[in-house]
Each structure stands twice: as C-alpha cells, then as structure tokens.
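Quick one from the shared queue. A colleague (R.T.) flagged Cytochrome P450 as missing a structural entry in our internal table.

Convert sequence to structure tokens.
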Amino acid sequence: MSRPDPLLRLPLPTEGPLDPPADWQHLRERCPVATVELPSGDTGTLLTRYDHVRSLLTDPRFARPTAEDGGARIAPEGGGGVSTDGDPSLAVPTRGEAHLRWRRHVSRYFTAKRVTALRPGMVATAESLVADMVRGGAPADLKAALGFPLPVFVICDLLGAPVEDRLRFSYWSDAFLNVDRYTGDESHAAYTDFVTYMTDLVAAKRARPGEDLVSTLIEESRAEGRGLTDPELVGTAMGLLVAGHETTANMIGKMVALLLADRGRWERLLADPALVRTAVDEVLRADANLGGFGVRRYLTEDVELDGTVLPGGTTVFCGVSAANRDERVFDRPDELDLARTPNPHLTFGAGPHSCLGQSLARTELQVTLDVLLRKLPSLELAVPVAELRQVEGLTVGGLREVPVRW
C-alpha cells in the first residue's frame, strides 16, 4: 500500500460507494494522529485508532466547536452547511453542568420503555410504505419509498410536528448538513426559516400541550420550575429533527445496500431472522460511508495522545468509521459478521455526548429490516454495487438512491 500524501484532504477517496478509504489502515498503523485539510482550506487533526477516538469522545472536557471557538471550518467560504452551533441564542448547551442538565431532561424521553412503546406504530408505518412501493412496481428507489419517509414520520410523531411538512424538514436538514450543495446564503436562509417554524411550534405546544416530546419537556419545566428555556426547546427540537431524520434515512439505504451487496447475507437473515438485532449493529459498525469527516471535538486545552501533544485550539475529527475497523478491537474487522457480539462500535459516539436517540435509531433500523425480510424476501439490488452513487458533500454520508427489485 502506498503511503498517503503528508497532508491528507478530507473526505478521503474510496474505491467504491460502500468501501472504506484505503488510507484508513495505513493511518491506524503509521499515523494515527494525522493533520488533515478540510474543504474550507482549514486544517485539523484526524484520529483513526479506536482507543484514541473513544478516549476523546468520553472526555467531558471537550465538545463540538461553537461559534465562539473559532475552530476549523468544514465548508469553504460562502459554502453551505450550518447548525445551531452558529447561533448562541439557540444552541443546546454542549459543555459543563448546563449540558448535563439538558441531557437529564431530554434523555428521560428516550428510555427503552418509551421507544418500545413506539415500535408497533413504526411497524405499521413501515409495512404501509413497503406496500405502496410494491404497488408502484419494480424497480423502485428504496431510499425514496421507505428510507426517507419512515424516519420523518417517526420524528414528526415524537415532536408533535405535522407530517405534511416533511418535505420542508428534508430541505432544511440537507441545507444544514451538506457542505457543497448550497451557498452560505441559502443555508442561512433555511436556518432562519427553521428557527421561525420551531419557535412557532414551541409556542403552540405551550398554549395547547399534547403527548409529544416538546409538550412533555414544557410540562416538566413547569412542574420543576427550572426546565429548558424556550431557546433551548427550539434548539432541541431542531437538533432532534435533523439528526433523527437525515442520519437514519441515509442509514436505512446504506444498511439495505450493504446486506444485498452479498446475497449470502440476505439469505442468512431469511434463514435466521433472530439475527436482525446483531446484524443492525454490525452494519452500523461496518458503514464506511459516514460522510468522511468524523465527529468534531474542539480542544480547550492541550491533550497528549501516545506521545503526540495536541495543543488547545485544535479541532479534532474523531474518525469513528475508521476506529470501528480497528483490528486491535474487532476480529476480522473488514468482514460483515451478522452475529458479531460483543460489538462495541462507536457509531453513536461515547461518553457525555453519545447520541441520545440511539435506541430509537436502532429500533427503526431493526423494524425496517424485519419488515423487508417478511414482506419482500426476494428483494435484491436492481443495479451493480459499483453503480450506486454517494451523496456528495453530506457530512453524515449517504447514497443518492437505492434501486431495488423483487
């Protein structure tokens, strides 16, 4: 394997749409703490070993950069891609006691019991969407027919937002997470519209609460006298909608593509549906198409990793996908082992900033796979794997479409 250039540029190139970058293995072995250049021209540090990535993700001192940090930018000047990090009046607290307080309030809604209660509704929705896809005939785009609508139905139900607005949610999510599809002006205009929408939604829930997450948080705030502020409620709703919609929608498409890329995998699941749970986690581990940037952390002080000192002010990109293939932790990491257990992958992060909605995401993926195995056992890709097309510039990664037939 040839040595990569001294200054690597993110995202790293891949051989095929589902393949990991060839540079990952070299980096883990020879340069696990690497300097990288971003599309903006700024530089940061990329970590590719499991222990390094997990150490930084679990360190409560560090969080994603805020507008005040002046950390490395991903998008070039005038490019798209914004988030609530850019508006201090709306940003969910990311550090210290304020962040812990926020997590305590929101995490109570994502308990296993509450997510389990949502499962029958997810199954019914998924079965209906699959039936609609079948009626439309093959070939079909599974991402458009199932991958996109299922998570948005679920998140709208959670937030108490009208599902009729799902196309607006999709546009807003894309405008925030895609660094080269939109101009900066377009992304910020979408951001402003989204803030206005969610501000109105929070006001409506305060006036007439329902049984959704936003109403629950408002009621808990009233009962305790020190709950989330309205700006925090708006930021929370925005963050959950973007994360709960865009990431899961893309993961559904990638999961199905990975499993159908080798027919033996699909046949094994048909023969033993009990493997669905471990198969979902294995796909989450093996997904190499996570956007190519990793999880950002901003160092507020110096950090030493294996003798390398990273100075305060450094923006670190935790290469979660690369870490998930670290042979020091995972046996035969480049193989998709549908029964792999234990599977301590880092796809949902770790520590104080781990994904609050991971139980919900896992359940959506499990439901999707279970329904497809039951309803469409003959499912297969309608194009060769090499012809699948990645979504360019999307920080969470994805495929443009997933053509299937049955």
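The chain is about 45% helix and 10% strand.
The two ends are 40 Å apart (CA to CA).
Added to the table.
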